[in-house]
Design goal:
Number of strands: 6
Order of helices and strands: HHHEEHEHEHEHEH
CATH architecture of the largest domain: 3-Layer(aba) Sandwich
Number of domains: 2
Helix content: 40-55%
Distance between the termini: 57 Å
Strand content: 5-15%
CATH class of the largest domain: Alpha Beta
CATH topology of the largest domain: Dna Topoisomerase Vi A Subunit, Chain: A, domain 2
Strand order of the largest sheet: 4-3-5-6
Shape: globular
Structural class: alpha/beta
Length: 203
C-alpha cells in the first residue's frame, strides 16, 4: 500500500495503489493522479475508463512483426511501399514508434518484446527470437539491423541473435553510436566518445 495516504477511503486507496504499480509513477504522483480524477467530471472519468478498456480489448500483436496493432497484419507489414529487404529488430513496440518518428527508416520491423536478462529470469525462449528465425527462412532480407538498447541486456541480445543469423546470408548492421546533436565533447563519457570516433564518416 502506498505510504502517506492514510485516511483514504478503500476505493481511493485502491486507485492510488493501482497507479503506483505503473512505471515512473511514485507514491506522490499516484496520489495526485487519484485526487485529480476525484475532481474530474464523471463523463471525463468514464471516457478515460472506456479508452483503457477499449485499448485492452482491441489491441493485439501483429502475427508477422509482433508490434502492437488493431489489425492483423499491421499497417507497416501491409505497406507495399516499405523497403521489404531491410528488417530492423527492436526490443519493444515503443522502439518502433521512436524510429518511425525519425522518418529515416523505410523497411520492416521485428519486435522481440524484451531483451535477454538472466538476472531477471528472461532467456532467449521468452522473446520472439524463434519467430525471427522463421521469418528469415521464409522472407528474403538483404540487411538485418539489430537496434537494441545500448546496455548490457541489449548487447547480450544483439550478440546472441548475431550468432544465430550470421550464416543466413543477410548483412547484419547496428545503428551508429556516438554524440547527440547539440552535445559538447567535454561532457561525453569515454564510451560514447570512443564510439563516435569509431563510427566516423567522410566529411
Amino acid at each position: 500500500m502506498v505510504g502517506d495516504s492514510r485516511g483514504a477511503t478503500p476505493p481511493v486507496q485502491r486507485l492510488i495503489d493501482e497507479f503506483n504499480r505503473l512505471p515512473g509513477i511514485g507514491p506522490k504522483s499516484a496520489q495526485r493522479l487519484t485526487y485529480h480524477l476525484i475532481r474530474m467530471p464523471v463523463e471525463q472519468a468514464e471516457s478515460l475508463a472506456s479508452a483503457i478498456t477499449s485499448m485492452k480489448n482491441q489491441i493485439i500483436l501483429c502475427s508477422v512483426c509482433f508490434n502492437i496493432t488493431d489489425t492483423d497484419p499491421c499497417d507497416i507489414c501491409l505497406n507495399n511501399s516499405r523497403e521489404r529487404s531491410k528488417l530492423c529488430v527492436v526490443e519493444q513496440p515503443l522502439d518502433v514508434v521512436a524510429l518511425e518518428r525519425t522518418s529515416s527508416f523505410d523497411g520492416l520491423y521485428h519486435v522481440l518484446h524484451g531483451s535477454i536478462s538472466p538476472i531477471n529470469g528472461i532467456g532467449p525462449e521468452d522473446l520472439k527470437i524463434r519467430e525471427l528465425l522463421e521469418r528469415m527462412r521464409t522472407e528474403s532480407f538483404d540487411e538485418i539491423i539489430l537496434a537494441m538498447n545500448p546496455n548490457l541486456e541489449g548487447e547480450a541480445t544483439s550478440m546472441y541473435i548475431n550468432r544465430l543469423i550470421g550464416d543466413l546470408g543477410a548483412r547484419i548492421t547496428r545503428p551508429a553510436r556516438g554524440l547527440p546533436v547539440g552535445g559538447d565533447l567535454e561532457y561525453a563519457d569515454d564510451a560514447t566518445l570512443g564510439r563516435a570516433l569509431e563510427g566516423r564518416q567522410d566529411f
